[in-house]
Specification:
The chain has about 550 residues and is an alpha+beta fold. The protein has 15 helices and 20 strands.
Length: about 550
């Protein structure tokens, strides 16, 4: 019912509320919630639960504002209510309606408790899920890190072959793959440096070419995966000969053989300092050793050059065509450089030894080497209680030929004389050029004086034959002094001195003579030396007085 006071004559509007239209069916509302509508005089217009609702007095006490909350008590239980005013004056000419929603306190608190339970359960479950996910992520990160750390420790212990196992395809998988590649390369480099260091020690110490060749071939087989590998060393004194070292791939034993270096192969090595693949079957047969019975259809030759000198070459055989990477070629080149250095150093060492112990002109041992051999002969003869003889040889008339024909002719004669002397002695005997036109020979293991005389006569007969120099015949003779160990001396100095004394006694005769040393010769030499020394001192002290005696 509404009354418009501004138009009193219009009368009073009386309306009837259709509950189902305005409020809907009460059964559609929430069961435990009571919705009530009051007019301005706090009269109940509608309630979803008509049995239970707050009284007018209770509403008046608490609804002093437009909206708010309050509690009220009925006979059974306590309720919690919330109210809100609806202003109807502008449209319906009635001051207001008051809408109150109430619910039993037990129901409200039970919903809150359920909410708290659900909320905190959700929070706890979320935290647990977060922790589980975090632990999974942390484990996913820590396990690859632990494996990488273990791999780093293995690198510190020189274990380069054990790989880090990370199967994931993320950044850790890429990092593990890069780590394994780096570890493998470091292992190869460390192995190469260790091998090269070992070779360097061999070069600086014993310079054992066989051991160096074995180490190089073992490492070449490992890094190049070759079916066949060999090192050929060219003889420095005979450039036509080479010594081949090769590893048996099954037993890892070192085999060595001598071969002839062909001119064709030499030219290939000279014109291909960086290496060459060989297809020529003839050259392949010259390189491979038939006794090993290896068949390598793909063969690579790598010259060993050092300071513009070819000291040998390395042959690598492959059962299938090989494609080397840059780092593999570098490692192979490092090994070839080391073996080239070793061979060059060995050749230089042997050259220095030859220069110090071998006569450059005749190629015979010099005085130094002869003294060493003589010392060995004395020790062996003393141990076995045997005898040997020293022949001290001087070429008669050599000075005349040298002065008349020149030094080159004299050198040629000395070389020919050395060759003839070598042919007159056994392989067990030793010959040396002591200097100038003097030679010395050790006749070892003599049984009688007749054996010495036979060798000496053979030498004298050989020396009396003319020497053809520059198309002209030149005749020299040999004067030989002989000293026998131990009768004529028990050490090098005595033997050389006594044989020299006997040689000068033979030279004082007509030539082509030999004289055995006798103790009287030494006495005579001592007497002559004493007289000469006394005469020199007398002259220096002016002990001689010149006098003139007239002869009638």
């Amino acid at each position: 019912m509404a009354h418009n006071t501004s138009v009193p004559e219009s009368g009073i509007l009386i309306t009837e509320i259709i509950p189902n239209y305005l409020w809907r069916d009460p059964s559609t509302f929430i069961l435990d919630t009571n919705l009530c509508v009051y007019n301005k005089d706090y009269l109940n217009i509608f309630c979803t639960h008509s049995e239970t609702y707050p009284t007018t007095q209770q509403i008046k006490e608490h609804s002093r504002a437009n909206k708010g909350d309050f509690t009220w008590q009925d006979s059974a239980e306590k309720h919690i209510a919330s109210y809100h005013e609806i202003f109807l004056q502008p449209k319906f000419f009635t001051p207001r309606w008051l809408v109150i929603v109430s619910q039993p306190e037990t129901e409200a608190l039970d919903s809150l408790q359920k909410f708290n339970t659900i909320f905190w359960s959700s929070v706890i479950l979320s935290v647990l899920l977060i922790l589980l996910f975090s632990m999974t992520q942390i484990r996913r990160v820590l396990i690859p890190l632990e494996q990488l750390i273990d791999g780093t420790r293995r690198l510190g212990n020189h274990d380069f072959r054990t790989k880090v196992t990370v199967t994931s395809s993320d950044e850790f998988g890429e990092l593990a793959s890069s780590f394994n590649i780096m570890s493998e390369k470091l292992g190869d480099q460390f192995e190469t440096l260790a091998a090269l260091s070992k070779i360097d020690r061999e070069i600086l110490s014993a310079l054992n070419i066989e051991k160096i060749a074995y180490d190089v071939l073992i490492h070449l087989q490992r890094i190049a995966t070759v079916h066949f590998a060999s090192i050929s060393v060219i003889h420095d004194d005979s450039l036509k000969q080479m010594h081949v070292y090769m590893i048996d791939s099954n037993s890892k034993q070192l085999h060595n053989h001598s071969h002839v270096l062909s001119d064709n192969l030499r030219q290939l090595l000279t014109h291909n300092p960086e290496g060459i693949w060989i297809e020529n079957e003839l050259i392949r047969q010259q390189i491979q050793i038939d006794k090993i019975n290896m068949v390598s259809p793909h063969l690579f030759l790598l010259p060993l050059n050092w300071k513009d000198q070819t000291v040998g070459f390395i042959a690598l055989g492959f059962s299938i065509a090989s494609h080397w990477k840059a780092d593999e070629i570098k490692r192979i080149r490092d090994y070839t450089d080391r073996i080239a250095v070793a061979l060059f150093t060995k050749n230089r060492e042997e050259l220095l030894i030859r220069q110090a112990r071998i006569d450059n002109l005749t190629g015979l041992p010099n005085r130094f080497l002869f003294a060493e051999q003589l010392q060995k002969e004395i020790a062996q003869t003393r141990r076995e209680e045997e005898k040997f003889a020293i022949l001290y040889i001087d070429l008669d008339n050599f000075k005349k030929i040298n002065d008349s024909l020149g030094h080159s002719a004299g050198d040629k004669l000395l070389c020919d004389a050395g060759t003839r002397l070598q042919k007159c002695i056994r392989e067990s005997d030793t010959i040396a050029r002591l200097g100038g036109d003097e030679f010395a020979i050790i006749i070892s293991q003599i049984d009688s004086q007749h054996q010495i005389v036979s060798a000496v006569n053979k030498i004298i007969n050989s020396m009396t034959k003319p020497f053809i120099i520059n198309g002209e015949e030149n005749v020299v003779a040999a004067s030989i002094g002989i000293a026998i160990y131990p009768h004529d001396g028990a050490n090098i100095a005595d033997l050389m001195r006594n044989s020299d004394i006997a040689m000068y006694r033979a030279k004082a005769k007509t030539g082509s003579q030999y004289i055995f040393f006798e103790e009287s010769m030494n006495t005579e030499v001592v007497r002559r030396a004493t007289i000469e020394r006394e005469l020199r001192r007398a002259i220096s002290e002016q002990q001689f007085v010149a006098s003139l005696s007239a002869t009638i």
